[in-house]
Structure formats: structure tokens, C-alpha cells
Specification:
There is one protein chain. This protein is mainly α. Helices cover about 60% and strands about 0% of the residues. Helix 2 packs across helix 3. The termini are far apart.
Length: about 110
């Protein structure tokens, strides 16, 4: 069941797709969860760095136990998540708000020009 939900649909056999369709028809909540899981899988594979906030909101609105708690984890460091999933950003580059302590740390690490 887990592999049916987490594998890309093109990786499933015809028999697997039929089994998944049957299970999802019997449990609408699982169908919603499956949609969120598929959407989540596309974020890193397609490098959709701007997508996590909308995905988090959609999962939160669905009120599905288990997924709601999982979806809140990226909020702990959303700038890092966004930067890591955005093409063209090098490690250490950020887009968006920087906390004052981050600026202080960068300044402290730069060699002085004396």
C-alpha cells in the first residue's frame, strides 16, 4: 500500500494501479492523503521551491491526522527549504527574509580587511 502511494504512477503496474484505485474508492480520506503525498513528491523532484507554503496550507486545511503534523516541519526553516528546492541558488544563498543573527554570523566569519 505504501509503495502504491509513494511511487510515481508510471512506476506502478496495471495491477497495482487497479488495486490502488479500488482502495482509494473505499476510503476518501486516504484518497486525499494520496493526493497530498503525490504533490509532496513533486516538490523536490521538480525543484518547486516556492511550492511548500501552498502545500502546507492545503494539508492543514484537509485536517488529516498524521499529515498535518508532518506538513508543519518545513515551517521550522522555510528559507532553507525554499533555497534547497529552488534551481539556480547555490548552497548558502537565500531568497527572502534573513534573521539578524544570520547577518551577525556571516560578518563574524568573514576575514577582516586590515
Amino acid at each position: 500500500m505504501t509503495s502504491w502511494l509513494t511511487l510515481h504512477s508510471t512506476a506502478l503496474t496495471e495491477e497495482d494501479r487497479a488495486g490502488l484505485k479500488e482502495v482509494l474508492a473505499r476510503c476518501p480520506e486516504l484518497g486525499k492523503s494520496a493526493g497530498h503525498v503525490r504533490d509532496f513528491g513533486e516538490i523536490p523532484s521538480d525543484r518547486l521551491g516556492s511550492t511548500p507554503p501552498a502545500w502546507i496550507d492545503a494539508v492543514d486545511a484537509s485536517r488529516l491526522p498524521g499529515l498535518t503534523g508532518f506538513a508543519l516541519h518545513p515551517l521550522r526553516d522555510l528559507n532553507a527549504v525554499t533555497a534547497g528546492l529552488t534551481p539556480g541558488l547555490e548552497p548558502g544563498q537565500h531568497r527572502g527574509h534573513r534573521e539578524p543573527h544570520q547577518e551577525d554570523q556571516e560578518t563574524a566569519l568573514r576575514p577582516s580587511r586590515t
